[in-house]
Amino acid sequence: MTDISLSQTADLTVRAQTARRAGAGDTRFRLTSMAAAILVLLIFAGVIASLILGSMPAFKAFGFGFITTEAWSPARDRFGALGPIYGTLVTSAIAMLIALPVGIGIAIFLTELCPRMFRRPVGIAIELLAGIPSIIYGIWGLFVFAPWFQGAVQEPVMNAVADVPVLGTLFGGAPYGIGIFTAGLILSIMILPFIAAVTRDVLETVPSVLKEAAYGVGATQWEVIRKVALPFARTGVVGGAMLALGRALGETMAVTFVIGNAHRIAPSLFAPGTSISAAIANEFTEATTEVYTSALIELGLLLFVITFIVLAAAQLMLRSMEKGQGK
Amino acid sequence: MVVNRALYFRRRLANSAFIVLSFSAALFGLAWLGFILWALLSNGVAALGPHLFTETTPPPGSQGGLSNAIFGSVVMSLGAVVIGTPIGIFAGTYLAEYARYGKLAFVVRFVNDILLSAPSIVLGLFVYELVVVPMGHFSAIAGIVVLAVIVIPVVVRTTENMLLLVPDSLREAASSLGAPRNFVIKLVTWKAARAGIITGALLAIARISGETAPILFTALNNNFMSTDLTKPMASLPAVIFQYAISPYEDWHDLAWAGALLVTITVLTLSIIARILGNQKRT
């Protein structure tokens, strides 16, 4: 079999040209896509570089004492990050304490208990909760949740524990409605869907043979889940929880609305406070001096470092989980 | 045969307790969704009306709408998607088609996933230093840039995932016909993954249409209609924020109306994205 066109030089040249053009297009296309990938790296490097550069004036002025100082006084140009750091960590801790068990409960419900018919609608509803923007949680928290919480929960709890030694301090003060605890609660509602979705996904990867074997020897549902499914999915669940923690640490608008924006650290969880992100959101456009702006950018740098560590750990755990499945 | 009734009873009790707890966990989650949607509807619907789309944001105490904020949100979101989506698609293509197991791809994937979940307020600070400081003032361009920075990681992730679902046999078949690599990608794998890639773009729009914090230090806000991209521009989230923390009752109503509009947009986009995403799989 011979290709007739090959015997004609004119056709050959055309073919060679086409091939060359296609080859050039190939290189161009590969380089374009590579440039786009490198741009992602550049954005990341740019974020770090701009935060470090921006925070230099504040770092020069306060050094490492910035992290351990509570005072925050724009009038005297003295800034310390301890209040916001405390608020960020405590609100996130409250959020995780509530969202972790509830989220895992929802995931177990969706994978093991829910009638097949309702599985998708309930799953979708929970995921929609994740899609609602943070500012909606904020406005809802400020106008609806905080007033309700103030009357229905804070007052009774405060009255009940007023004379108990430790609890009295932890839940003392005046019932403002807004404050650290309210912010933690709203955060927990926001991260709940993430934990539930990731946990559901990893629970679905548990081989049914394992569960059937456990049922076969007479285990109850609870025992199958606690002793077979959850241990199998452990890495994924922890990774998902870290991912959710990363979100909680950096969450801004919902917290800004309800945390109360007070830079001092109060012993009571019901008292107003602030978080890193809330302080930046509230004060950045009002910052008048260079050191003030720079202190807020340094807060941003601290936030980025904290979330980077948490998110990196989450990535590594979820990756190792995926690899385990590939085996 | 000895039957340990106490043990059986304990195990059954633990099991029932667990079932009740996980049912209530699901109810708890759904209850919040209901609670939030109900509050949005009951407060937002009352303030809805055609004036929202025709009048600009009012000074306190007078009638007005949200037209400048809606316009600003649409312009900035579109700008961000137009800039961010192609970059994201190309970067995702690089990860899935060219460097699947390479070192560079590993690093880009890791960094991209970090950017995907990084606090958007920090990205706002970055764009403030990058665009606002050199320009000397806040501008809609800065808003577009920061939203594009948020769009890119979302699109990269979904594009890569969707391209990886395309079977290699399709690529091999196209290559064996003599198609150059970029033809294989453009005509075969992008086509096969089209629904998924569009889903990614929709999810990205859903994500940025509610972004508030980074907008505050880039596009700022504007109480008047502005079409100048080099000037500050209003946006729905920024107006919601400004109005909600104000002491004026009529501003609160507008904030609720804005919140309802944003939520409807976001939920509609996520539902469309979900439907498209499901079509892909079957």
What is the topological layout?
The complex is a heterodimer of chains A (327) and B (282).
Chain A: H1 9-62, H2 65-68, E1 72-73, E2 78-79, H3 82-113, H4 116-131, H5 134-161, H6 165-170, H7 180-203, H8 208-216, H9 221-250, H10 253-258, H11 276-283, H12 290-326
Antiparallel strand pairs in A: 1-2
Helix pairs in contact in A: 1-12, 3-7, 3-9, 3-11, 4-7, 5-7, 7-9, 8-9, 9-12, 11-12
Chain B: H1 5-47, H2 51-54, H3 67-98, H4 103-117, H5 120-135, H6 140-165, H7 168-176, H8 181-192, H9 194-209, H10 213-216, H11 236-244, H12 249-281
Helix pairs in contact in B: 1-12, 3-6, 3-9, 3-11, 4-6, 5-6, 6-9, 7-8, 9-12, 11-12
Condensed summary:
The complex is a heterodimer of chains A (327) and B (282). With 327 residues, chain A is an all-alpha fold.
- DSSP strand count of chain B: 0
- Approximately how much beta-strand content do the residues of chain B carry? under 5%
Main β-sheet of chain B, in a few words? Answer: none
Q: Helicity range of the residues of chain B?
A: over 70%
Outline type of chain A: flat
Q: Sketch the topology of chain B as an H/E string, one letter per element.
A: HHHHHHHHHHHH
Shape of chain B: flat
| End-to-end distance of chain A | 47 Å
Strand content of chain A: under 5%
Physical arrangement of strands within the biggest beta sheet of chain A: 1-2
Report the radius of gyration of chain B as a whole number of Å. 24 Å
The portion of residues assigned to helices of chain A is over 70%
| Count of runs of 4 or more consecutive helical residues of chain B | 12
How far from one another are the termini of chain B? 53 Å
Number of helices of chain A: 12
Q: Output the structural class of chain A.
A: mainly alpha
Structural class of chain B: mainly alpha
Q: Using DSSP, what is the number of strands of chain A?
A: 2
Can you tell me about this structure?
The complex is a heterodimer of chains A (327) and B (282). Chain A is an all-alpha fold. Helix content of chain A is 78%, strand content 1%. In chain A, a hairpin with a 4-residue loop joins strand 1 and strand 2 (78-79). The longest helix of chain A is centred in the first third of the chain and has 54 residues, at 9-62. The radius of gyration of chain A is 27 Å and the shape is flat. The longest helix of chain B has 43 residues, at 5-47. The interface between A and B is large, with 90 and 91 residues.
